[in-house]
Amino acid sequence: MAHEENLSIGVFIDGGYYAKINEGFRESREVNLSALLDFICEKISQDNDIERNRLYITECHYYRGRYRAEDAKAKNLLYNERKFEDMLIENDVIFHYKHLRTNPKGGVIEKGVDTWFALDTYEMTLFREFDFVVLISGDADHEMLARKLKALKTHVILLTWDPANTASTSRFLKEEVCTHIDMNKLTAADSTLLKSLTI
């Protein structure tokens, strides 16, 4: 019997979207990233009839805009940011940051992160030849990214989670990917799943 090769999974996390997931939970719950990554492998295994021990997340990347150190210190964010980074490091997630910019009205804008996310995801998929790419995002701008990844013959999976029911995921993005994992539907159907994926 021929040996079946292992299959690789690349996971790419839109940090702004991930933050919205956590903000949507009540009772101070948040995503257990380690459990979520395990769930992704299990779900791909079940949906594609692939043995679980053949699937490996070979790379996981996180993209986000963030305040400069002095601004974060003034807003008392440094500890929480460091704690969050500890969690990313513990799960072998490579994080990528761009500084937030201020706009004329005094607010902040996250400029260029979505483009960076898309370019890196495409380039890494091209050279690493992932069998599956999981996008944790809801941004309509990633519709063309999904289309380009499919042109590389990569199975593109979109994982969305909207606990606050804000309808923040682009319909066009959902229609473009190969598979959509709708965590709202899955956790509504199985309350134990929600408990296992949050802390």
Q: How are the SSEs placed, and which strands pair?
A:
Elements: E1 7-14, H1 15-24, H2 33-48, E2 55-66, H3 69-74, H4 78-90, E3 94-99, E4 101-102, E5 108-109, H5 113-128, E6 132-136, H6 143-151, E7 155-160, H7 171-176, E8 179-182, H8 183-189, H9 191-197
Parallel strand pairs: 1-2, 1-6, 2-3, 6-7, 7-8
Antiparallel strand pairs: 4-5
CATH superfamily: 5'-nuclease
Largest sheet: 6 strands, parallel
N-to-C SSE string, H for helix and E for strand: EHHEHHEEEHEHEHEHH
Structural class: alpha/beta
Q: How do the strands line up in the largest sheet?
A: 3-2-1-6-7-8
CATH top level is Alpha Beta
**Strand count:** 8
Can you describe what's shown?
This protein is of the alpha/beta class. It has one domain: 5'-nuclease (Rossmann fold). It is about 45% helix and about 25% strand. The protein is built from nine helices and eight strands. The strands form two sheets. A six-stranded parallel β-sheet has the order 3-2-1-6-7-8, with helices on both faces. Strands 4-5 form a two-stranded antiparallel ribbon. It starts with 6 loop residues before the first strand and ends with a helix.
